[in-house]
Amino acid sequence: MYKIPEENYPIIEDWVDRESRVLDLGCGDGSLLSSLVAKKGVDGFGVEISHDMILQCVQKGICVYQADIDRDLSEWADGSFDYVILNATLQVITRPYQVIREMLRVGRCAIISISNFGYVRNRIRVLSQGRVSSRIRLAQSWHDTPVLRFVSLREFRSSLEEMGIEVMDARYFFPLNVVARTPWPGYNLLAKEGIFKLRRAR
Amino acid sequence: MSTPLVETKTLGIERPFRFESGRTLERIDIAYETYGELNGKRDNAILIEHALSGDAHAAFYHEGDQKPGWWDSMIGPGKAFDTDRYFVICSNVLGGCRGTTGPASLDPATKRPYGLTFPPVSIRDMVEAQRVLLKHLGVERLKTVAGGSMGGMQTLQLFCDYPSRSDSFICIASAMKHSAQQIAFNEVGRRAIMADPRWNDGNYDDDVSPEGGLSVARMIGHITYISERMMQEKFGRQRKGIGTKTVFRPSFEVEHYLDYQGIAFVKRFDANSYLYITDAADNFDLMASISSKGRFRGQNRERGMNIGDMRAKKGLVISFSSDWLYPSSQSREIVRLFTAMNVQVSYTEIETEHGHDAFLTDCGKPSQIIRGFLASLG
Asked: Is residue A1 one of the residues assigned to a domain?
């Protein structure tokens, strides 16, 4: 498994209200939830598919539920959570639209982060080497990377619009630690990643 | 390495015990074992709940025995329920036949076994008997209460009836209530017993007990306890003693296996107990029982109170991928209920081929999770 980027943690911590109910989909070893519990006093729940990750969550005292995000979100009632987080996980699920809809049914807000396949380095790699995978973070070959969906920030934003989802807040990560709150010109070429706070449009 | 020894003790309660049905017995015995030591703060006790055919002998060895208790792989020094850290208690259920008062016990009034004059037993009755035992042992509060299958039912009942008495629960391969299929299998087992002429409406002596019926009940049970695939891998269509085959005598390996299990069971189990305990499990309905009002004894003084406020409580629910008797969907239902009650519940489905029996026979991964869970309780 690849490591979940921790640079998003401060932003998520900032977006999440104190003492709210948070569901983290693909919560890994529970480190994001631990930090949200410690810093914001949230009621945190994780969903994970891997036994080893579940073990690590349980050891940390993090509440974790073994389930397949693609299939099992229907078990939660509408509005069970204030925030449903999908941090660096969208690209590994098979039915992203359904999962995003479910996130906004189960939760009031969704927080989704993705890496930008339209980022210039990815484009150069595809053009020059003819390779879609072997990203730095996802240092695997095409057949064993968990990533199933290659999506650019622009494509993702237009999908949100199509689905009637409102972007409440966002951050775009550019090289040299430059972070923007709005999609600057050229963001789809120059931003490495994005993170979005979403809700259903009124 | 020396094998730790243990003896089953008996607590005699010399005052009337009232059942949920309203009926009373003048006195009852509770058979129990303990492992490890209760610490000075009395906050390291763990109650283990056994399943249908279990007993108080959960771990360690009885003097001279070749086999340890039924959950010895989980309970002991350095094991999941670490007896170097925790004071572990297990008692035989009320209605059982392994030392605790049940239908095979002698009715002091008639000097004959109770048989069917024994009051109907509920899961809550079992828990009430355990509460008396805990009081006797000086245990006010449990670190956790844990059990698999019917032990899981007692676990949930105790945790809900006495929320202030346990910091957490561990419920393995269990259900909030039996499905039609689970009741159906139990009913076939009961009918097998009752169809045995030696059962005689529950009036039988020890030496002429309805062994035939009880062993068939157990055979049915064993079919449901393991997965189809494991049964196929273990036995397939292999035969035993082909040369001596006579018509309709067991010849397939699987037949011999079930035969053996049936015979082994009747040596240690009472047929009426089997009826009473399966009846308790079938009638268990957690939601109905915790939402019912006007309970006897203590009258809501503690039971059921604060049930909405369990924020500081933790739960661990475990199911097994190949368990078709208590499928994972039933465990997920438990998780949903307790999550809604604000208990911090974790859930995991363990990959295994062992079927329902995994909670007894495939303890590796459950041990890891339970150890981690107990560690997180502090």
From this structure: no
Active site residues of B: 149, 323, 356
Considering the domain delimited by B9-178+284-377, tell me its CATH architecture: 3-Layer(aba) Sandwich (3.40)
Q: Please, what's the b/e burial string for A109-128 (b: 16 or more CB within 10 A of its CB; e: otherwise)?
A: bbbbbbbbbbbeebeebeee
* Cβ contact B32:B8 at 8 Å: yes
What is the H or E stretch that residue A64 is in? Answer: strand A63-66
What is the C-alpha to C-alpha distance for residues B46 and B142, in angstroms, rounded to an integer? 6
Q: Are B359 and B173 in contact (CB under 8 A)?
A: yes
Q: ipTM value, please give it.
A: 0.87
Q: Give the domain ranges of chain B.
A: 9-178+284-377, 182-278
Q: Identify the segments of chain B with pLDDT beneath 70.
A: 1-2, 242-245, 293-309
What is the total count of domains within chain A? 1
Paired tokens of B279: 């009846």
**Distance from the B311 Cα atom to the nearest Cα atom in chain A, whole angstroms:** 9
Answer for the pair A142, A180: CB distance below 8 angstroms, yes or no: no
CA distance A100 to A112: 9
Segment A35-92, tens digit of pLDDT = 999 999 999 999 999 999 999 999 999 999 999 998 888 888 899 999 999 998 888 8
Fold of B182-278: Rna Polymerase Sigma Factor; Chain: A (1.10.1740)
A52 inside domain: yes
Instruction: Tokens for B102, please give them.
Output: 């049940």
In this prediction the pTM is 0.92
Contacts B169 to A, Cβ<8 Å: none
Domain of A31 in residue numbering reads as 6-199
Domain for residue A190, yes or no? Answer: yes
Rounded-to-integer distance, Cα A152 and Cα B168, Å:
45
Q: Do B376 and A54 count as a contact with CB atoms less than 8 A apart?
A: no
> Within a domain: residue A116?
yes
Helix ranges (H only) for B11-149 are 123-137
Residue among B115, B85, B87 nearest B102 (CA): B115
User: Could you report the per-residue pLDDT of A122-139, keeping only the tens digit for each?
Assistant: 888 888 888 776 555 555
- What the block records as the tokens of A53 is 């990750």
Residue whose structure tokens are 């994780």: A46
Structure tokens at B278: 């399966």
B346/A54 Cβ within 8 A: yes
Q: Which residues of A touch B332 (CB under 8 A)?
A: 75
